[in-house]
Amino acid sequence: MSEPTDREPVARPVPRINTAVPHPARIYDYLLGGKDNFAPDREAAEHLLRVSPGTREGVRAHRAFLRRAVRHLAGEAGMTQFLDIGTGIPTQGNTHEVAQQVNPAARVAYVDNDPIVLVHGRALLTGSAAGMTSVIEADLRKPETILSHPEVRAVIDFDRPVAVILAGVLHFITDEEDPHGLVETFKAAVPSGSHLLLSHITLDFAPQVSEEDFTKPYDNSTAPMVPRTLDQVLRFFEGWQVIDPGVVEVVRWRPDEYKDRERIPGGHAWAYGALAEKP
Predict the structure, then answer these.
(1) Do 273 and 249 contact (CB within 8 A), yes or no?
(2) Integer distance in angstroms from the first to the last C-alpha of the chain?
(3) Any idea what the CATH number is for the domain that residue 129 is in?
(4) Which InterPro entries does this chain map to (predicted)?
(5) Residues 165-202: tens digit of each pLDDT
(6) Which end of the chain is more exposed for a tag (fewer CB within 10 A), N or C?
(7) What is d(CA 186, CA 145) in angstroms, rounded to the nearest whole number?
C-alpha cells in the first residue's frame, strides 16, 4: 500500500447542513454536553431525558465503554488499523486519540453521514506524527462505498487485520435495511485477526418503558431508532470469537473509569457492548 504524504485534513467546501431535522449525531452531541447541535436536536434529546432521566449518564457510560474497548484493541489485541463508522461529532476521547496514546502509529479512518461531522472532523480529527487519520462522508447502508473509498484505502490496508467499530450506530438501521447483512459485509471484507467493536441500544433493562415512547424523538429525524434484544445483538457476532466478558451492558464491559453504576439513575446504560475477533 502506498504511503500517504499529506497528513493534514484536506480542505473541502462546507456542505449544506439541514438544521430543521434532528440528526442522531447532533442529539448525541447535546447529551454529551457539546455545542454542535440545533433546536430540533435539543428538543429530541430533552424528550429522551423525560422518558429516561438517566439518558445523559448512559450516553457518557457508552462513550466510556468505547474508550476502554479501543484501548484494549490498540494494546492487548495489537490492532494498528481502525475503521470507525458512525463516528459522530468529535468529542474528548476520540478513537484515534485513545489508540495513538497506546500506539502512536495507529491509523484511523472515520466515516459518518452527517455533513456537520465532516466540517468538525476534518478540522479536529488529525492523527499523530507517526499515525494517520481520514474523515469521509458516507453511509453505513452502503458498505461497498465505504470499503472502496480512496480516503479509506489511503489509511486502511485490508490485507492486514482491521478493527471495525460500529459504536452506537446500528440502532439507526431499520430491519428493512438489513443491519445484520450490512455487518456481514464488513466482516467479510477484513482478514483473520480482525476485530469487531459493537454497541447497541436495548430496552432489555427498561421493561417499564414502551418502545414507542423511547423512539418517538427519532421518528422525524434523519434515522429512526430501533432498540434490539440481546439475541438480536448476538447475531451481529456470529462466526467470530466474542472476547470476555461477552455481550454485556456497556457499564459491565471491563469497567475501570466508570465503576459507579449508581451514577446512572435506574442503574442502567440501556446499551449492550462487546468485542469479537475473526478466526
Answers:
(1) yes
(2) 24
(3) 3.40.50.150
(4) SAM-dependent_MTases_sf, SAM_dep_MeTrfase_SAV2177_type
(5) 999 999 999 999 999 999 999 999 999 999 999 999 99
(6) C
(7) 11
At 193, list the grid cell.
485477526
The secondary structure element, H or E, covering residue 166 is strand 163-167
Nearest Cα to 159, choosing from 116, 190, 115, 121? 190
- Encode pLDDT of 191-200 as tens digits: 999 999 999 9
Q: What are the residues whose beta carbons fall under 8 Å from the beta carbon of 221, sequence distance 6 or more?
A: 21, 22, 23, 24, 27, 44
Print the domain residue range for 97.
24-277
Between CA 82 and CA 63 the distance in angstroms is 17
In angstroms, the CA 182 to CA 187 distance is: 9
Contact 107, 130 (CB under 8 A): no
Q: Provide the number of structural domains found in the chain.
A: 1
In a domain, 39, yes or no: yes
Contact 202, 270 (CB under 8 A): yes
In a domain, 8, yes or no: no
208 found inside a domain: yes
Instruction: State how far the Cα of 218 lies from the Cα of 231, in Å rounded to an integer.
Output: 23
5 part of a folded domain: no
105-140 burial, b at 16+ Cβ within 10 Å, e below that, comes to ebbbbbbbbbebbbbbbbeebebbeebbbbbbbbeb
Residue 61, C-alpha cell as written in the block: 457510560
Bridging pattern class, strands 195-201 and 163-167: parallel
Cis status, amide bond into 245, omega within 30 of 0: yes
For the whole prediction, is pTM greater than 0.85? no
